Structure formats: C-alpha cells, structure tokens
## 1
Amino acid sequence: MTTYDLIFYLFALIILVSAFIVVAARNIIYSAFSLLFTFFGVAGIYVLLNADFIAVVQVIIYVGGILVLIIFGVMLTNKITEVEIKTESFQVLPSIIISGIIGGTLVAIFTKTNWKVAEPQILDKTVTEIGRFLVSHYMILFELAGIILLVALIGSVMIARKEKLETEEVEK
Amino acid sequence: MENNSIQNILESLNYFTPELALMLTFFVLLLVDLFFRKSKYLLPAISLVGFIVSGYLLVYTPDVKGFLFSTGMTNIGLYVIDPFSFFFKILILLAMIYTILFSLSSKEINEAGGNRGEYYVLLSSFALGMFLLTSTIDLLLMYLSFELVSLSSYILAGFTRNVKRSAEASLKYIIFGAVASGAMLYGISILYGLTGTTNLYLINFYLSNQNIESLPLVIAGLLIIGGIGFKISMAPFHFWTPDVYEGAPITITAVLSVASKAAGFALLIRSLKIMFIDYTATNLQSSAWAILSQFKWNELIAGLAVLTMTLGNLAALWQSNLKRMLAYSSIAHAGYMLTGFVILDNQGIMAILIYFFIYLFMNLGAFFVVMLIADKLGSEEMEDYTGLGYKAPFLGVSLTIFLISLTGIPPTAGFVAKLYLFGALIKAKWIWLAVIGVLNSVISLYYYLKVVKNMFLRESEIEYSHNLGHGNLLITLSLLIPTLLFGIYFKPIIEFAEQSVRIFGF
Amino acid sequence: MIPDYLAEFFGNKFIGYLIAAALPLFLWILPYALYAVYAERKVSAFMQDRIGPNRVGPKGLFQTIADILKLIQKEDIVPASADKPLFVMAPYVIFAGTFAAFAALPFSSIYIGSNINLGVFYIMAVSSFSVVGILMAGWAGNNKYSLYGAMRSVAQIVSYEVPALLAIVSAVMVIGSLNLNEISEMQTAYFWNWWIFGGPVVGIKKFLLIIPMTIAFIIFFIASLAEVNRTPFDIPEAESELVAGFHTEYTGMKFAMFFLAEYGNMFVVSAISVSIFFGGWQSPFGYLGNSLGISWLIPVEQVFWFLFKGSLLVLVQMWLRWTLPRLRVDQLMTVCWKYLTPYAFINLVLIGIITLF
C-alpha cells in the first residue's frame, strides 16, 4: 500500500462517515454542516485523480455556494434562536429493503463489470485544456449551460419576488 | 486542429438556425419585458413571430445533416438534423403557437400581473429545450436540454403564484423531476463507464463489437428510460402527472401534455433505436429492425406500456375533476403510443407519429374548451358541467367531439390514429398487446362519455351564458376542423409520417 | 525549492512536505499575528491621539505576548445552551480555511507550499471553508447576536466574492497564469514590470493596461476588505450593535483562534494583491545579492520583500479601519452589486479588448 492509497482511504473514510451523518443526524443543522466534510472529501478524491480544476470548482461551488445556501435556508425557515430542529425517518423497514436491493445491485455492477479504462494522462495545465475544450468541442453545451442558469435565475427571482409585487399593488 | 474545429462549428451554425431563432426570441423577450412591461399584446406577438420564424427556418434547412458540431476524432458530433426531428419540431412549434394563443384569452395568465413577461420568456426557453431534445445524439447534450425543459416547466407549472395548488404542483414537479434526472444521470454515468463515450452512435458501436456484461447495461438502460419516462409520464414514473396537470395553469397543462411529451417520445425512440439497434441482424432495406441481444428492450417497453395505459385509464374512471381526468387520460395515451415502439418496425414508429399529430389537435382542443368553460364557471368539476350542452351549445358540441376523438370512435381523427397503431401491432403479431389496447379504449369510453352525459342528458339550474368572442371561436374551430377532417381525409398525415420515420443513419 | 530539499533530507516525500507546509505557520503566521495586533493598537492609538500599549516591554512591544499568555491560562468556557460539537469545531474550521490558503502563497522563489497551477483560484476556494466556519460559530453560540453577526458576515463575504473574483479574472486574462509563483516570476527586474504598471509587456499595450489594472487592483482591494470583515465593512462584528458578532460567546484560546484567523486572512488577501499586482517576491530595484555576488542572499531578500509588501498592505487596511466609518447593510449591498460588480465587468471587457491586440 503506497502513501497515495492511504490518502485515498482517508478521504474515502471522511466521505463515508460524513455522508452517513448527513443522512442519519436527527438535527438537520448537523446534516447540513457535515455536508462540508463530504464535499471536502470529494474534492480530495478529485485531487488524487489529477483533476485539480474540478476539485477547486467543487469546493468553490459546493462549499462556498450551495452549502452556504442550504445552511441559510435551514436557519431562516425556523425560529433562528432555537437549536432544536429535528428530522425524522418514516417507513424504515421498506426503505432498508429497497435501498439494500439497489445498493446490492450497484455494488455488484461496480465490482463485476469490466469497465472501459482510458489511458491515464497527466496534463501539465488542466485549466488551459478545459478552456480549450469548452470553446471548441463542447461550445454548444457551454452556451446551453449558460441559458439553463439564466432560466433558473429568472425562475427563482420570479418566485422570490412575489410579496413585493403584492404590496406594490396595494399601495397603488 | 483548433482552427479546423472552429470552422466546423461555424459551418454547423448554418444548420442550427431554427434553434438560434428560438434563442434570439428568448433574449429579445427578456429585454422587451424589461422596458415594455405594461403592454398586453407585445410579448405574445413577439413570441409568435419568433416561433413562426423558427418554423420558417426549419422548413428551409436541409433535410438531412449528420453530426453537427463535430470536432476532431474524439467526438463525432452532438446534433443531427433528419426528417424524424423535423416532424417533432413542427409538432412542438404547433403546440407552442397554440399555447400562446390560448394564453391570450386565459384568465389565469392575464390576471397574473407583473409576471406575464417571464411566462413568455420561459415558454420560449421551454421550446428551445424541446427542440434540442428531439435531435440530440449525445448524452451530455441530452441531459442538459432535458434540464432546460424541466427547469422551464417547473417554473411554468407554478406560474399562478397566488393559487395554492399551483405552488404545490410546482414543488411536486421539482421533487419528482430532480429524482428522475438524478436517475438518468446515474444511468448515463454507468453507460459512459462501460463504453467510454457519450455519443449514441459510438455507444452502439461499442455495444455491438465489445463483449459487454448485460447487468450494468440493463441497469443503465432502465435508469435512462426511467428519466425519459418521467417526461412522458410512463407508468411507474407517472405520479406527478395528475397533481401537476391539475395545479398548473391550463395553458401549461396543455403544452406539457402535448409538446413535452412529444419531445420525450422523440428522445426515447431516437436513443433506444440508435443505441440498441443490431446492425448485423438488420436489413436496412426493410422497415423492420433488430435489437442487440443483451436485453430485449422492446419486451420491457411492452410491459411498461400495458401498465401505463391500464393504470391511466383505471384511475381516470374515478375522477370528478375534468383537468385531473384529462391528466390520467394523457397517461393512458402515452401507454398506447409506447406500444408502437414495441414491434421494432418503422411501421410502429410511423403509427406513433400519426398518433401524435392527431393527439395534438384533440388534446389541445379538449384543454382549450375546458379552459374557456373554467374561466367563466370558475370550476373544472364534472358536476358543474350539467346541462352545459344546452346553455353553451358550441362549446358543448366541440368538447364532445374532442372527447369522442380521444376515445377513438370512427368519424373522428382519433379513430385513424388508433387504427394505425393497433393495425401495426396486429401485423407484427403482437396481438395480445393490441387486444389490451382495445380493451383499454373501451374503458376510456366510459369516463369520456360521462362528461358528455353530464352536459347533455342532465338538467341544471346554474345560470350560464357564454359570449365566446371571435378569436376564441377561430381557435376552437382551427382545432376542431382537423380533428374531424383527419378522420375522413388522412392521407396527408400518413404521407408526412411515412417520410418522417427516417432517423439519421438508418 | 525548500519542500523538495526537506523531502530529500528526511528521505520521505510526505514527511518533508508536511514539515514544509507547517513552516509558514510557525515562522510567519504566529509572530505576524502577534505583532499585527500590536500594530493595530498602536495605529489606532496614533490616530486617536493616544499612546497605546506602553507598559510591557519597551514601548509595549511584549503586550500581545502577555495577552496570549493570559488567554492560554483562561478557562475554556462552553456556554450551557450552546451546540457543543459545532461550538468546538468552528474555530478550527475557520482557521483551517485561512491556513490552507497559505499553501499557495509564494514566499520566495525557493519556497511555496504547493506549486499548483490553480494558485489564486485555489485560495479563493478554500476561503469558503472560513465562510462555513463562521456560520457554524454563529449558530453554535445560540445567541442572537452571534447569529446576526454570522448571517451578515456570510452575506457580505458571498456577495463580495463576485467583484473580487471578477477583478482577479480580468488580471489573469492578461497574465495568462493562475500560479502565483509563475506570476511573481514574470514581474522580474524593476518595479515598472509589476502588473499594476502594465507588467513585462512591451509597446503601447503596456500603457493602455495601466489604468484597467489599477482599477482591477482597487476593486479587488475594496472587495477583499469586505471579505475579511474589516471596516468600513465590519458590520458583522459591529461592536456597538452586536457585541462582537459571530464570536461573541467564545473565550480563551478559541477566541484567540478567531483572531489568528482574522489576521491571517488579512495577510492572505494582501499577499494575493502583492503577488498579482505588485511583483510578488520580486524586489523593486534589483537584488543586493546580485551586486555583491552572494547567491544565497537573493532568496532571503525575496522573502523580505514579499513579507514587507504584504505587511504594508495590511497596514493600509488598519489605517482604513481607523479612518472610515462603518457602512449600513443596504449601503454595503449597494456598493457591491450596483458599483463594484458592474465596474468589474466593464473592466473585464476593457482588458479583454486590450489583450486582443
């Protein structure tokens, strides 16, 4: 076992433990905060895969954006001075059976399958390559992603704007 | 190599003009909405112009052009233009144009106030997403356009923000949609791991030449079919349909039940056919084709089709809300249409196309009449329709015709559609499936005619008078006439569908 | 490179790198933070016409060391109604975010924690750990002032990340690299080769670049002030409104950790400015080691220049703190979204056009 293996297992452990807390924690705020460690672990795995750009993007978007948003959401939708926010589980037995079946199938797939393995390439500058791909090979996807984000933005603004419009109408 | 690929992309843009027109419409609407918020007709007019221009460009782009946006050797393109996608794009544009016309007279939309601008903006992005879905040949592009369609429709479903059930519909749609696209993405990732490519043609190449285990392939296929099945409200993934159709504004329900379903079907047929066709066993001269031996996808689809139509019809029996009933009936129709794929024959796909074309008119018509009545009556409950046939004879008769056509009774176009579908099934020796289809149609007769019975055979004291206005009259007629005409003179649709079964490369 | 040398010395890559990674903490962050606190008090005293600390040691030089000793001895109180696990974890998460940023700072041509290609981008990313840490601290204290402070702080940091990143992107567009070490290397020789003066570009382009680069620096500097919660953007900690913001409930060493992280962050953002705009570890007017012919002196000089320039910018931050009044929340958002962000975009386009030629 090389040191890289050790580091991999360390990150894998972080991901598994924190992801388990995300699901199992009764206090929703713990779930939200332990997502931090899940994202951190995933970023670590990306680094080991030599995908440094993806790792950094993972941190900047998921930790800096989505996680903060989730925590804000949790904090603002409840009485903010109260720490007790509970989540509960329903239908424990059926869900265990179903997830067991799905999990078993997936494990079988991942261990038994003969995956197509590409030649590992170590790129000196990943950012340059990614940039080049985004404006040539995947240009249309890149532009489309822009439109999708714009639509999401319009939608969220439209939903969030509600009350202000109503008060405006009242004032008139 | 870089210059070459840029050249290639620029050249591809020439064939991409209909989509570019839609994109332009999207941005123009966004900007115009910023400055001319008050005007009532400007935004719908711009959207209509945008859709018509897009249609014009669609007709004048070449028939077949494969592998657009292809660059270099690793990637053989993301997009194709073929008669198959042309058919569905025309269908989608028709549905979108009708939706805009419906929206003009819809009470729900006009009372929404300040958000009307976003409504038209999102409709155009919705159309763009569906356009891309009909002719994508790359899993990545497929996923992204899928998300564009989904996101637009989530927001549109919750558009009437003051209505509680509309918000509920939107939320349910988002939750189900997120699960569906997550599942699809998982399937895509497994498929990518197996074949190392996201291009449908290359996937087919690997699947036919490499020895690939069937378990991961089946799971990946199931997950992808599940994701698409969500869009077309196929049976185990149909739970969202009634709630969303009931809660959303009727115009959106109409467009969801026709256009987004059409895009989903186009995607399903294209991806399954391209990915799993077996070249060696297929004689490209004949219309029938064979499927790769790992898994009998068509038998799976057959099972799902039976489940879909039976569940849809049985649930529709108990509904008292007309919108909800039409939602279940649209599930059932998705079931009928799925059977066309089962026989692995271009005849079957042609039947699906014919069915869709006719379904467009009859379903939109039914929703439009329900919308007109609901705007006046303030209710979609079947109880409130009693005696309507005498108080508003034109609407009553139109609704009756649309419902009869949905059932598939002779003088209407619905009969032609079912005739071709079941005919193709019987010809391909899938008799049990045809029998189940016919039985289901008989069940559907009951709940469709229940509405008709309420309208004509029962008296009521409710005061109701309806001044339709010329515009609405014209729209209704433009839907009613095809529904009746294509029941008698259906040659043009058949020919159009016959030309359109050609998928690029086959 | 020092990390490689250490790796060779210990015979194991990982041990060597670990020790190299710990170097800035012990050799720079701790002493720097001690004396930054002292400097801050002296600066404020000077500006308010006071004397400031003057009892412990000559001119009060050992005041902060005494403070640290006091803080270490204090009881580590966890409030009864606090959320204990999060309360304990928060200071470490915040400090980890700050400390991780030091990994990509080039202290000299022979020392950089990790010579990664994504330098600046990486630093911006790990700073988001601090954001979550702040939320954690504010929540765990179970005190309304903490929570308000945390909310304000995070809203501010997340908003000001936009103009900060845009300013960096516009500079990086000209530079063509994200690696801070590489960026520093480019600005060699004399100070007119610093990127704020157009960088080592020749011809008219250099003069065209001066104004947009200066604007980029100013935008980045203002945004970075907000990111480290310094006045005029210190509403998260506004003493007169919120006691002390998100760390109200903290005492003892945990409290000290927040201070360490805060002063560390101040240095990190200054160091980014220095590396991108002010030549990094390059000396403004040639090296003494070169003229004397002593080659080992050059890296030492480089370390000096890097730390000197960085500390100078930290001093500017302190100077601003004691000069400007605090902004209101709405003014804060107006500055960010209505002024800085649009200007940053215009600047981005401008620089893009200039680089085209």
Note: Residues 134 and 141 of chain A are 8 Å apart (CA to CA).
## 2
Amino acid sequence: MSLEVILQGLVSGLLMGFVYALIAAGLSLIFGLMEIVNFAHGEFLMLAMFATFWAWALAKLDPLASLPITVGLLFLLGFAVYHGLIRWILGAPMLAQIFATFGLAIFLRAAAQALWGVDFKLVKNPLVDGRLAVGGLFIGLPQLAASAGALAAFGFLYWFITRTETGLALQATAQDRQAASLMGIDTQRMFALGWGIGAACVGAAGALLAMFFYIFPDVGATFALLAYVTVALGGFGNVPATLAAGVIVGIVEVLAGLLIAPAFKYAVVFALYLVVVLWRPQGLFGRF
Amino acid sequence: MPRGLRWAGAAIALALLIAFPLVITKPFPRHVMITIFLYAMLAQAWNLLAGYCGQISLGHAVFFGTGAYTSTLLLKHLGVTPWGGMLAGVVLAVLLSQCIGYPVFRLRGHYFAIATIAVGEIIGTLMINWDWAGGARGLFVPIKRPDSWLNFQFHESKQNYYYIALALLVLALWITLRVERSRLGYYLRAIREDQDAAASLGIPVAAYKQRAMALSAGLTALGGAFYAQYILFIDPESVFPTALSILICLVAVLGGVGTLWGPLVGAAIMIPLGEWTRISFGGSGKAVDLLVYGALIMVVSVVQPGGIMALARRGRRRTG
Amino acid sequence: MSRPPHHLPPHPALSPSGGEGILLDVRGVTKRFGGLVANNDISFQVGAGELVGVIGPNGAGKSTLFDLLTGFQTADAGEVLLDGHPIARLRPDQISRLGVARTFQKLKPFTQMTALENVMVGAFQKTTDPARARREALEALERVGLADKAQAHARVLSTGQRKRLEMARALATQPRLLLMDEVTGGVDLRSIPGLVALVRELNAGGMALVVIEHNMGVIMDISRRIVALHLGEVIADGPPATVGRDARVVEAYLGQAYVG
C-alpha cells in the first residue's frame, strides 16, 4: 500500500465528505428545529437523482444545468411533506414520529421502483467529465465538481442561517420554540421552511451526485445511513459541525476500504458511529 | 367485553385455526397462514422490547438470522437435530443481545434507533463476507428424507409446519401475557414511560432493558430456526437485512404496539395484503405491496399511533 | 386519621419527636456545571423522623441538591451518608432501595397507566406478587386520598391529583426518608390544605421528610427545621422562627414583610 494510494484515497474521501456534509446538513437542520429524524432523507436524495436523470434523458439537460430545477423541486417536496405529514405528528410519541418518516421512505422507494424499475441508470457524457492529474494523483472532474458544488451549497446554507433574518429566525426557533413565537416568529412557517431547505440541500447533493453515480431506487439507503452517522458525529442540530463530520466519514470510509477491505468500509463507518456516540453521546460538537 | 367471553372467543379461534389445515389442504393457503404466524410471532417478540419497554430496535433481524444460521450450521457440520439447533440459536441470540444491549442501551431516543440499524448493518456485512458460513451465496439446509419430526423436515405437506408455527405463535402470546401481568411487565412499561421516575422507584433500568432484550431476541431466534427448516435455504439477504427488521416493526405498529393481540392483527392484515398485491400486480407486485405498507404506516402514525387495537378500543368505548 | 403506617416496623429512631439517630448526613457537597457552582460545600443533617424544609430563591441549587442526594447527579466533592452508609456514588435505583424516595418538581406520572398501576410500580419494590402489590398500592392511594381515582388513567388527573399520585407511588416503596420537590407548586388554592395535612400526617407517623417549598406560609408552619440556600450555599439552618428572622435570609428571599 503505497503512500500514493493512501493520498489518493484521502483526496477521494475528502471530496465525498463534502457531499455527505451537504446531505447531513439538511437532516441536522430539521432535527435541530423539531427533534424529528427524517428517515426518508435517503429517498429525497434518490428522487433528486432521478429528477436529474430524467431531465437529462428527456430534455437533454446537463445535471449542472438542471440543478436549480432539482433544488426547487425538492424544496417543494420538503414543504409538502411537512404540511402533509410532519405537521400532524409534531407532538406525537417518538414511535409515531419514527414510523411516519419510515413509512414515507418505504412508500417513496416503492413508488420509484414501480414507476422506473430496478435497473441502474446513469447519466452519460455529462458536461463535466474526465480526470485531472495533480502530482501523481488522479482526481475525477465530476467528483471534484460535485465536491466544489457541495461545499458552495454548504457555504450558502451557512451564510443563510447566520446572516439573513429568516435564517436567524430559524436558529431562534431551533433554540427555543416558545421564546421565538413570543417574539412574533411564526413557528409553523419556520418548520415548513426548515423542511424545504433541508430537502433542497439533498436536492443539490443529488443533482451533483447524479453526474457520476449510478441511479436506482435503493440508492438512498446507504447515503441515508452515512448521513445519520455524520449528523450524530457532528451533533444533532449543529449544522456547521456536519462539515467536519462529513469529511471524517468520507475519509474513514475510504481508508477502511483501502486498509481493511472494500466490503467492510461501511461497517467501519457504522462502528465509528457506535464508538463516538458511546464515548461522547452528544457527538463531537453537539449540544443535545 | 367481559374477560370470560374474550377467552371463550380466543379458544374458539384457536380451535378454528387447528382445524384449518385439516379442511384446507392446498399448499398455498397453508403457506400464507404459516407466514402470518411467523411474522406475528416475530412482531410479538419485537413488541416485548419496543412496545412494552419502549426501546425501538430497528435491527432485530440479527436475532432472526442468528437462529437460522446457528441451527443450520450445527446441522450441516455436526449433524445436530434442528430442535437442538433451535435451542442453541436461542442461547446464542440471547448472548448476542446482551453484548449489543450493554453499550447500546446507554443511548436514548433516535440515537438508540440509529445505533440498532448500525449494528444490524455491521453484522449483515460480516455475514456476507464470512465464507465458512456461506457468505453471500448462502446455505442450503441438508435435505433429509423421509419426513420426520426429529429432522424437522416435511416434504409431503405443509401441515406439520403449520402446527409448529402455530405453536410458536401461541408460545409468544403466552409469554407476553405472563409478562404483562407480572412485575416484569409493570417495570418494563414504567421504563417506557419515564426512565428516571422508574429509577427513582428502585428499578435497575439497564438490567431490565437487558431482560426484555433477552426475551425478545430469544423468541426471534426461534422464528429464525423455524424459517430455516421451512424454506430450507438461508442467505444474508433473506435473514439478516434491515428490510426484514423494518417489516417486523411495521407488522407490530400496524396492529398496535404494546398490546397482546396487536402483532397478530397486524400480521393477519399485512401478509395477505402483500400476497394479494403480489398476485394482482404480477412482476412489479413487490413494489406495490411495499407502496401499500408505506402508506398504511404513514396513516397509522398520523391517525392512531396505537394501531388497529387502539382504534378498536376507541370504537368500543364510544359504543359501550 | 393520624395513625402510623402499619407496614413500617417500629424503629427506635423513628418517633414523632425526632428521636436519636441521624438519618441523612450531608457533608460538604459540591457540584459544578462548567463554570457555574450549583452547590457549594453544602452540609446539613436530617434526624430520623424530622421534617426539614429547604427554601431559597430560584437558582439557589435546591433541585440540584435533590438530584445529588438521589443519585441523578454525581457530586464533585463531599459525601452523603444514609444511616452512616455512603450513598453519593450510588445509582438512583440503589438509593431508592435503601429507603430514600422522592417526588419530582416537574411531575413524572406514567401517563399510559392507571393511577393504581402507577402506584403498583412503586409497590413492586417490596414484593414480586402482583396481587399483593395491588393491595399495597390501593392502601397507598387511600392514604393520599386518591382511592376513588384508582382506575383513572394518570393523564386525566389534575395537577393536585398528580402530586398525590406521585406521593402515593413514592410511599408504596416504604421509604424511611421522603424528599419532596415542591408540595404546593401549580396546585389550586383549595387543594393546598389537604396536601399539607397529608405531609404532616406522614411526618406524624414517623417518616423523615425533606421538603423544597416556595410557599412560605406552608413551609414555615410544618417544618421542624429550615435550611435556606442562596446561590448554592447554605445561609441558614435552624428552627423556622430563627431562620425567618435571619438577616441574610430576609435579604435574599423573604423580604421584610415576612419577618416575625
């Protein structure tokens, strides 16, 4: 195992890590607002990837071109899911909350399978293609673009929640719902907005991933698990921390694949989750 | 409904179920019933931990797989009768559950649920890569002829499998009933409602969670061992996946968690529903039944998290 | 109405006048949360059968103290002795089984269970037989005046009833020492005298009690001794009349109107 291979792996892991961070950011935002884990988050991602695919297959739109559309569509989906489902289980026991989004996940996955079949689909000849050679390392351009896009989206999200009035209102609602509503912030609107933004993050991630990743109904499952681990590592509710956590997950995944065995890379990530939450239940940087 | 009447009703239902295979001799209906019994029993086992004790495990398939693989491997390599293998599977599953529970029960709420998924995935991955145990290809249970109870294999008809599955279900129901009425049941429910209050009343919370876990895991393993002898082929995909864990939960949630009859009611609805959609919609039937399950669970979660049993109770109270 | 609890065996240290033994000995207990010192070197004693009131403004560290005494938090320094045995490092369930029961400021009823079932959970500490637990639970409910609500689900009970329920549940564990975090908080005025009488009755029967209470009229009236906390420290410890006149206490909490 040469240094080169390890460096290659580290770069790969870092790049994917930003994408994981973006996916996890949406999850973290939603949890921070209303303490609900969206178990359908992976299916949101899957839908975003399919949306990108169909935009390419039917309208010849490159993933980067259709990205704004996908983000918009997922935003609306998040909004709709909040008003159609989540709103009714806000005060419900945790069992109901877990299974509401779980039911949604199963439903969405089955719908995708029924509509589009189980075959793997792929966007061919995207605008951004090929490899970049840096030193002795090869970096896939789609991966690089996805990573850059994820980082940019993450930065935009961070700017939004810390610098805009709406974003600050979101933070206030997350920290203290009652106080926020006493100050005139419409918590229902904040919740819906949170779901919309959370889904939009996943929408961007999905559009970016679709540049080089296979697309099929079950694709969301693994990403979702990695997202849960990322959020738990960063601390549920702590959006900025998910960036560091995402990178850690990305790197651990790749290193585990290289140093142990490719078949075990996810197992190692999950083991990492267990170790972290047991040693530091609130995550590396979390508040809960 | 007065207690005496309820038990009379249950006795009649049991008699009908016992008579069923004597009247219906076609294999497919019997298979559906066996599947109902199996899922009801698995859901009941899960119910003990999640419904009564409030610990929502989303990785319960690991115990099912442990039961299936233990009895099959013991039969294959040491010629141990599957009944013995079943017991060994239960013991192993209980041990495994205690090992898992020790760290994982320190977590609460969503962290706990996600941890159970993580454990399930880790063990599933290990099984896929464990070549001695069959790896991804799985294991064929050695065929033994002629049919015999000792070998726990019946090829002529499904009738004996039917009775064994029914017996397992009755066992699960009986255990739940005993737990419900005992100190264990009260303690588990107290833990579910408020762990801190429970501790302040002298309940060693971690120890009781482990007890519920052991009971739940053992019962689930029984189901796994039965499955192995019924289907005669097992692989990680069929006995260890997260999808199975979720399905078990769905059955219990639909019927009513934390109730005695909920899992049976849930299975009695979901299994035939799944079979019906599979038949009606041909190839893509698999997706349609999941579509229906997903929708059902969303509706149940929103409208009545207590499941069908809670709906029935509400209806009775209004009219009674 | 005033009769000793018949299931508590007579104990030389348990007598209405307070008796000889020190039941609870709190020595130099300190608890910090980051930079905040919630409890600073707190020491006091509770004699067998004594009723000690704990007062102090919000943030004085009263509930933290209870958490430390019942094992829900671990002290950074100091020791707590129950009948001479150190209990500061024990888990809540272990402390409960040694005879210390508590109620919570934010009530914690088992909402999906009936009142009777709630109390049975407590009763099961002393027996494994469900029938016996049911009998003991019914008795406990009678003592607190909730016998007619035995079959009601806990979630439909009023605040005053929930307080009684929590007391019954704690009593069913047959404690030697009962820590009550707020007797009258959130209870309607009409129900307060009944609750106070109940507390008095328990004490009259020989149970030691430590009661956190904000209602000055109530706590000064029923306590043998008062421990006053302010900013995590004990600022007074003595009979109500003395504490009520203590300059520090007056300044911190009572206000001039209450002196005398």
Note: Chain B has one domain: 3-319.
